[in-house]
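Objective 1.3, modelling of assemblies. Example input:
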Amino acid sequence: DKGSHRHFMEKEIHEQPEVISHTLAHYLDFAGGSWRPLDMPFDFAKLDRLTISACGTAYLAGLIGKYWFERLARLPVDIDIASEFRYRDIPLAKGAAALFVSQSGETADTLASLRYCRNAGISVASVVNVRESTMARESDVVFPTFAGPEIGVASTKAFTCQLAVIASLAARAAVARGTISREEEKALIRQLCDAPRLASQALELQRRIEKVAHELAHVRHVLYLGRDTNYPLAMEGALKLKEVSYIHAEGYAAGELKHGPIALIDETMPVIVIAPHNRVFEKTVSNMQEVAARGGKIILITDGKGAAQASVKAFETIVLPDTPDLIAPIVYALPLQMLAYFTAVFMGTDVDQPRNLAKSVTVE
Ligand code: M6R
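Predicted structure (tokens):
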């Protein structure tokens, strides 16, 4: 039931504050500001590496996880698209564990990768939304998301719930590995608890986003740029737009601009820059200047400080609330989803069932 919403995708975008909160509550005691016990088949403290594999949007959630595990827990992460992972004859070290990410728990390539790891004798964990799925059954441990049924083919709430789980796991890995102080741990818990509130503030930006979507509905190509965790998020924004609006979109690491994609930029090219005021903000601003110098139409997604300090004229600036680094990808995912959604609505595509796509890809 879509309730008062026009499409499941819209409904699912709006459900995010609630389902993120519901998901986090499985891992965190909000009131006590502490972790809930987890049944673990491996000890984060003893791992040498973590191997992540998934497809599509779930892969991009895993890629954001790589930044978190490496930065917070100093745990090296190998990550691969499942269709590559399964045929690559990867040597898996004994000190490794594998983590799979999947909404459905049935994606053929991800399942095959999971079985490859099982056969290699390493511990297998999965972040899945469907508890009764094959991947859930075949894993040593399941870290569930509680997004509820996701009907729209384009993944929205499943993605942010995956991020919530992976962020929690990375923070716990940091505790287990002794790479953060007690104060830092408390701060991370507080930040996670704040994610649902910030996600709901992001939903209030609808008007502004509709204005940008009106523009995008007339273009053929869009470039998304970001650094650090906003690089995978740029790819997710591009994936969402191409899935539901059929506009050609690419997500790039902003630092790669000069290495090729800058050739595409002219006055007709919208460039969506995801740049909260963080450790790499100044670097991203210089990439924006390169875009601006070539007449590109910049749509900047940032926070208050970023908006004040971005010394570039943007066509539109979407200002999100101040968001701690850890949960920024969760909060910044929402305007990207809304942008794809409204662009598709203005173009009149079949938002919930885009052409050529299936919700669950159970064949190769
Ligand atoms: O069920 P899964 O999470 O394993 O599905 C993976 C991808 O097929 C999925 O994320 C796909 O990319 C979505 N259509 C993205 O919106």
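Residues 55-58, 102-104, 107, 110, 153-155, 243, 357, 360-361 surround 5-amino-5-deoxy-1-O-phosphono-D-mannitol (CB under 6 Å).
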